[in-house]
Amino acid sequence: MSGPFAFSSRVALPRGITRRRLLVGALAAITAGSSPWKAAQAEPYTEIAYRSGPLTIVGYLYRPEGDGPFPTVIYNHGSRIGRDREPRPWVSFGGLFVAAGYAVLVPERRGYGKSDGPVWIDAVGRDSTSRFIDRCEAETDDVLAAVDFLGTVPFVDRSRLGIVGWSIGGIVTLFALARSKAFRAAVDQASGVLTWRRSPALQAALTEAVRRATCPVFLMDAENDAAPEAIPTLARAMEAAALPHKATIYPAYMPTHPTPDSAPGHALFEPAGIPIWGNDAVSFLDSYLKP
Fold first, then answer.
1. Most exposed of 31, 159, 180, 273 (fewest Cβ within 10 Å)?
2. Domains in the chain, ordered, with CATH?
3. Which 8-state DSSP code applies to residue 190?
4. Interval 10-36: pLDDT, tens
5. The pTM is what?
6. Which residues contact 67 (CB under 8 A, 6 or more apart)?
């Protein structure tokens, strides 16, 4: 990088490959455990950095083919306790949305990858109440700072901004919707589900967040996640408030390599699950972010 941030002028597709062909290929390759983006370009993103208060946040910016300005998605990753400092550009998710014509920004929120700030366990420990929620609100600060950063990127159309998040990233997504009117559509994947049953405080915070949402929200989960009642509860809160939303509970999902301390359905929103929910997410965003 040079200066406070940098980004590439283009991420070109290989000759003869259209966006539609690349999207289909991406989903097939993800299922097989690889990514066609690595074959197309060693790094199909540009590493950027921006300020969030006193912190420097590092992220990964993807650009589709063409001149833009493009509708843009902010993708909010989940936690990875014990592997927090491993930089992860989430190429599979970037590839999904870029192939559909979106620019994508993946912020590594505070404490992740190369970004400043303490890792999750040091800031939160095992708390599931005030420290947990305060940390999620602080990470939301990083995402709202990313919105400001995108205003400096010439190929981004900030009037067509979407947001997607999984697990803790889903919590951050909903908190961002409650605090900002910058977004025109959102996809929430299993927000807070792993903590839901042991944190009435989080239940209340998420319910309040969806009631304050100012854009349509697509709520997703798998029926064998840790608390399959969580997403329907948030959907009912939005329905009671007459807010536009969609909710889908996918059939039970079994990952190839389950994580011992996590419900198998929670893994639906890892890269291997993209063939199941990817087209649904893209279609929902298209409905609100494309002319």
1. 159
2. 23-289 (3.40.50.1820)
3. S
4. 333 333 334 443 444 444 443 344 343
5. 0.86
6. 155
